[in-house]
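Hi all, long-time lurker, first post. I run a small reading group and we've been trying to get comfortable going from sequence to structure in the token notation. Rather than ask abstract questions, I figured I'd post a concrete chain and ask someone more experienced to write out its structure so we can walk through it together at our next meeting. Sequence below, copied exactly:
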Amino acid sequence: MELSAKEKIDFIAKCIFRATGVFIIAILGGIFLMLLWNTIAFLIEIKPWDFISGTQWNPSGVPASYGILPLLVSTCLVTFGAMLIAIPIGIGTAAFLSEYAGKKLRNVLKPTIEMLAAVPSVAIGFLGIVILSPKLGELSSQPNGLNALNGAILLAVMALPTIITVTEDAIHSVPQPYKEASFGLGANRWQTLRKITIPASAPGIIAAVMLGVGRALGETMTVLMATGNASAFPKGFFHSVRTITATIAIEMGEVPYQTTHYYSLFAIATVLFLFTLIVNLIGEHYVNKFKKYQAL
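-- Answer (accepted) --
Happy to help. Here is the structure in token form:
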């Protein structure tokens, strides 16, 4: 192929890739503007402070209440519980796969774990209702176990494939001379993993955790089925809660169009969007920080 033809193909490919990138950014920008537009329409009718600090969410009541605080705390509670379970298990499993498991065992375990990500969230929610919920109900002496702990455990299961896969890749990508130098100084495998491998792969591990947090924050069906959907202010892991995503899923299909209630659902979606953005920015900050540490 002639040089001019190759340059022409490169130019066309560059234009296509640039157009797809701009198209994706335009879609994201359009979604954000739609959320912002409807949120402003809501905040014209409801004072922002009442929306942020209100402790009751009851749009159908008389008078209606639009306090997001119980939904926000419920979302944070379930996500925190899920990460409390998923992070140590995920990092430990990834370290085992990368450093201790034999090649045959690794070739079986890793695809099996990755396949867990393909299980539909409705199936995991169903298992939570049928298997996990009765056990938690007995544990807490309640009629059922549809509570924040149930949702946290199920979200941890859903986040684990992402955390394990990305963390294992990060640990596996640590240069071999790092480990050989540690072994040469007399360190054993556990000391090398704890002092060398995990710190060197910290950016990838943090990215894995952030992806897991994003997975937990954005999940809808599982938390809708497993947490009881009580919009009251949560008092602990053994109480029923309702997350922001579950609220949008439950109410959006029945709410009258262009009413205060309708706009309020866009407002809580905007809060979730900003919340997720902040989490990602914090994760990016620490990723860059560890990259600088590695460059020293």
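A couple of things your group might point at:
The first strand starts at residue 57 and ends at 58.
Residues 3-45 form the longest helix (43 residues).
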